[in-house]
Amino acid sequence: MTYFQKVVLFSNVFLFVPVTVMASEGTTEHGNAFTYTLAVLALIVVAAKIAGAIAERFKQVSVLGELLLGVALAVPALFGFHALQELATNELVNFLSEVAVILLLFQVGLESNLQEMKRVGINSAIVAVVGVIVPFLLGTYVLAPWLFPGAGDIFGLFLGATLTATSVGITARVFKDLGVSTTKNAKVVLGAAVIDDVIGLVILAVVNGIVQSGSVHMGDVAWISVKAFAFLAVSIVLGRVLAEPISAILSRITAGIGMKMAMALAFAFGYAYLGSLFGLAPIVGAFAAGLLLDHVHFRRFSSPKFISTIQDVMEGSKDSGVIDRMHIAIEGFRERHIEDLIEDFGQWFIPIFFVMTGLSVNLAVFGNLKVLFAALALTGVAVIGKIVAGFFAGKGTDWKIVGFGMVPRGEVGLIFASIGQQSGVLNDEAFAVVVVMIILTTLITPIMLPMFLKKKEA
Amino acid sequence: MTYFQKVVLFSNVFLFVPVTVMASEGTTEHGNAFTYTLAVLALIVVAAKIAGAIAERFKQVSVLGELLLGVALAVPALFGFHALQELATNELVNFLSEVAVILLLFQVGLESNLQEMKRVGINSAIVAVVGVIVPFLLGTYVLAPWLFPGAGDIFGLFLGATLTATSVGITARVFKDLGVSTTKNAKVVLGAAVIDDVIGLVILAVVNGIVQSGSVHMGDVAWISVKAFAFLAVSIVLGRVLAEPISAILSRITAGIGMKMAMALAFAFGYAYLGSLFGLAPIVGAFAAGLLLDHVHFRRFSSPKFISTIQDVMEGSKDSGVIDRMHIAIEGFRERHIEDLIEDFGQWFIPIFFVMTGLSVNLAVFGNLKVLFAALALTGVAVIGKIVAGFFAGKGTDWKIVGFGMVPRGEVGLIFASIGQQSGVLNDEAFAVVVVMIILTTLITPIMLPMFLKKKEA
């Protein structure tokens, strides 16, 4: 058996069999659909965490493991077993998936350090813009009409859009592993990725608006772009103005982590809703909430016992150097950014989205060689588009490193694809092609980057 | 304005108005019911946290604040505004409420230290059994036929069941505040409360089974009792046997908090489902999962940076006493019980249940003086039943302290009541009466206990 066959077999014995048994047993007789869904999801999340850990052992991002787990779980459907696919139409599962992407984009927003973005400046901006425009144009106006003739304008726009957003997590890790995070190449890539996210979300807002209205009018496109940019810009400005007072209020609240998490989530969910009132996708709102709270710091009170132990130690010590450094350590421990709170909370939800996305791939379409070819062509365009961007990185940079650093698509591309599928714009073939493209672009980077980086050193 | 009026006004301006606006605005046009529900819930949870913090300032448990917030939010319904009540029939809200009670009972199970239960022994057991039987019999066979004539056997059983379970959180806090946690009185009460939980859940299982079958057969009652006891007993035994190997496996997992939380939740949700397969309520399963994992310890890796700072300090220090104590501190910090992980996760869900329960009270029923009288009568029986139990606490105890210590009903009683309401066994009047009883019993204890305790000292 190949490694892939083993993974498919193992994951299906672990998940498919129990779920099928549960599906035939649980929901009808005792009428507790909630508990059934929860139990299945709990199993899926555990499996996803294991798949993520395996991916990390192979120097890949955990998201890739979670996505591939979903694809592996789509195998039984080829033989007529659809118990897991039925989950994808379960309203509760869809609800939790929506919570997952909102939390995910909120996190991305929180991590988007705008000050750093400003510092890398013009080079990153050019790389980002070129890296969005080139693959978008190639996808929309070359690949879409060629590979899917007659699929229409909106289809083309969506296919192009899935090619735009860079998922820089994996690149950041490669840079870090090789100890080159502070080089100019790395800074340009990381800065461009943040700008990419912002542009990508505006594109998503536009595409989402077009899907809802069902037609492409330049006036609409302009209006949605203005709204999305304004929404993000206002959030950023508000964030800068309100960060201090909000931090001050929050640091006065002594009611523990629960209150702070409730407030952070109220921002995320409230903004997601606010975004939808403006006709924007909820994730644009969630991202804006993250930008808004980027500078807000929460104080943490979760382990007073530990802190008092440390304080006891300090009081017993006569070494003033020790005492000073302990004070700093305690402060560092108490100050906890919202990011950590949300990450802990999101840990359980986010894998649901990736597994369900993988599971939604109809593997039967790959029986058609054209689909396989389309997947490779889309991947090629995805790589070429970002490499072109690498040429604009300016003096002191290497186009290969910058280009391949920008190649992985990952989370945001998947969100685009799943919106496209749910709204019916992307058919089974196109959705499968996009998922394969995302998997391949995510696999390529950690293989190619170290080669270029080592060559350069040598 | 009275304080209560202020709270009603404030909470409704803060919550009711936005929700009404959102309800009329959000769901239809843009079709994103998920985001609307999330945003409303996020606001409700923030309000609940504030209400909880206010309750704590008045030396009450936060649960009471959350429940009263729900009741305050039920006021606009008196004037024909039902926007918030509609949430109670929203499937997503009901789903999250179900998640909340499962997490809550999982926590209760984790906190139920069985070894301590064994140690307090026979006195606690007698107090617990008497404190369950007396109010149950009084409620079922005296109050129910008298106050709600013709409501039927099942109704009576349910009303009696809501009177059984002790919610000892508030008593524990009063004991702790007054520094008497280690007295015999306190130990008997805390031990009895744990046994109470177990008995209460068996009663719930029985009552739940009766509701589902629609009739009372002694054979069924016996069979469900056996199943519930067996389920809990097997979980306890498995917990004792498997704690060591599970802990060993988990401590080898280095994939961070996410994996551990996923596994803990898989236990909770999986057991809840398993319970439902045996015809037991999901919360019985969740409680069993808590008992099972009671002794399992997870290692924590969340703040490696902090730990390495501490380690740096230790390396720099020449005082061996400091170093030894720092090692102990780091170990204490790394070892983290599942309880903490689940508590952080549950923080956001659990208030939803309490607010929704308060919100489900139809305040209009209190226009009928009979209902008010019934509420007071039920509260009287709830107090008397536990005080009778106090007489059985044995030598060296004070019946007033033990009795009033057992009076608060709280969480488990509310879960009973909401199951009763949702299944249609408890009508609006009875549900309102039970909620008022729970509020009053929870208010009485922190007022009465300190009086008795101070008298004794003097």
Helix content of chain A: over 70%
Domain count of chain A, please report it.
2
Greatest interface: A-B, 76 and 76 residues
Question: What is the alpha-carbon Rg of chain A in Å?
Answer: 23 Å
In short:
Chain A has helices at residues 3-30, 33-57, 62-73, 75-78, 91-111, 114-147, 153-162, 169-177, 184-213, 218-252, 257-277, 282-292, 304-316, 320-334, 338-346, 350-359, 369-390, 399-405, 410-422, 428-457, and strands at residues 297-299, 335-337.
What's the layout of helices and strands?
Two copies of one chain form a homodimer.
Chain A: H1 3-30, H2 33-57, H3 62-73, H4 75-78, H5 91-111, H6 114-147, H7 153-162, H8 169-177, H9 184-213, H10 218-252, H11 257-277, H12 282-292, E1 297-299, H13 304-316, H14 320-334, E2 335-337, H15 338-346, H16 350-359, H17 369-390, H18 399-405, H19 410-422, H20 428-457
Helix pairs in contact in A: 1-2, 2-3, 3-16, 5-12, 5-15, 5-16, 6-7, 6-9, 6-17, 7-9, 7-19, 9-10, 9-18, 10-12, 11-12, 13-14, 17-18, 17-20, 18-20, 19-20
Describe this structure in words.
The structure is a homodimer of 458-residue chains. Chain A has 458 residues and is mainly α. Chain A has two domains: 3-100, no CATH class; 101-457, Na+/H+ antiporter like fold (Up-down Bundle). Helix content of chain A is 78%, strand content 1%. Chain A has 20 helices and two strands. The first copy, chain A, has a two-stranded antiparallel ribbon. Chain A is globular and about 70 Å long. At the A-B interface, helix 1, helix 2, helix 5, helix 11 and helix 13 of A face helix 3, helix 6, helix 12, helix 14 and helix 15 of B.
